């Protein structure tokens, strides 16, 4: 009986020690997300401007809508859109602006939105 109590208490002690070690390693890894957040804030401070244009549907002979791959809403006649220069994929202007600030690549093919830069802003005063 004494042996059983001793074994149970040793197991409990080992589990506590294991949890403490795991928590300590998590505490040491915690600064990494903060470093990423600072990097994102720094990147947002120096944006590159993408022009936009009014969307004009292409006559293709079939009844299909072109969707913005970011928000999954259709691109409508006259809506402001922007395209990724490297691949020419088009998206809603605001959708691509938000996406580009966080990702820096095309949502469809992962081409860099602006070669040599990971940050993009969308022009709001261009037509």
UniProtKB/TrEMBL annotation:
Domain (RING-type): residue spans on this chain: 68-110
UniProt cross-references to InterPro entries, sorted A to Z: RING-H2_zinc_finger (IPR053238), Znf_RING (IPR001841), Znf_RING/FYVE/PHD (IPR013083)
Keyword Signal: yes
SUPFAM superfamilies listed in its UniProt record: RING/U-box
GO molecular function: ubiquitin protein ligase activity; zinc ion binding
Main enzyme class: transferase
Alphabetic keyword roster: Metal-binding, Signal, Zinc, Zinc-finger
Signal peptide (from-to): 1-16
Family, similarity comment: Belongs to the RING-type zinc finger family. ATL subfamily.
Protein name: RING-type E3 ubiquitin transferase
Organism: Eragrostis curvula
């Amino acid at each position: 009986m004494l042996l059983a109590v001793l074994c149970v208490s040793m197991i409990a002690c080992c589990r506590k020690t294991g949890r403490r070690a795991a928590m300590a390693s998590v505490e040491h890894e915690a600064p990494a997300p903060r470093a990423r957040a600072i990097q994102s804030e720094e990147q947002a401070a120096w944006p590159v401007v993408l022009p936009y244009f009014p969307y004009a549907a292409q006559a293709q002979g079939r009844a299909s809508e072109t969707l913005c791959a970011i928000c999954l809403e259709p691109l409508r006649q006259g809506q402001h859109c922007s395209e990724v220069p490297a691949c020419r994929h088009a998206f809603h202007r605001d959708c691509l602006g938000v996406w580009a600030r966080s990702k820096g690549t095309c949502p469809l093919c992962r081409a860099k939105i602006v070669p040599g830069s990971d940050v993009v802003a969308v022009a709001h005063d261009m037509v």
